[in-house]
Amino acid sequence: MSEKYKANNPDKIYFVTFAVVQWVDAFTRREYKDILVDSLQYCQKEKGLIIYAWCIMTNHLHLALGTDGKLPLADIMRDFKKFTSVSLVRAIQENSQESRKEWLLSLFQTAAAGSAKHQKYQFWQSQYHPVELTSNGQQQRCLEYIHQNPVVAGIVNTAEAFLYSSATDYAGGKGLIEITFME
């Protein structure tokens, strides 16, 4: 991996995106999105993850984040992806209401077959490419991009109306995940 895509400085803010393999719309059910929310909250409390902004879309997750230095960001992201991958596949397997169960599991199984590090299922695409946000301008553009994703996708009319995003916090409300505001 190039040095350009490594989160080497724990004092900096990074923009990352996690995408589901083949950009499949896996986050169409609340219980799947809640697994991500719970996992992010755990990483905040137990691993030192600092979240500045976030948004869960139907097939990807955007984050502006950093660490308190307790653990390297790469380790936190690795653990997050591994845990959520297993949890989400299990949730899909156990969901009697999931009409796309066989198709989703087949897709994740096919993705794993082409990977040396995944055994049975691969949920997430392999990379997350952290991009360091080195200026206030970059941070503000990133914040706007993250929060406008559901508006551009036609899910909501205003960013702060989207439950699975930090836009509510930046509009003065209380969202699902505790955030640290960008200055």
From TrEMBL:
PANTHER family: REP-ASSOCIATED TYROSINE TRANSPOSASE. Pfam families: Y1_Tnp. It comes from the Bacteria. This is REP element-mobilizing transposase RayT. GO terms for biological process: DNA transposition. Residues 9-149 form the Transposase IS200-like domain. One of its GO terms (molecular function) is transposase activity. It comes from Rufibacter quisquiliarum.
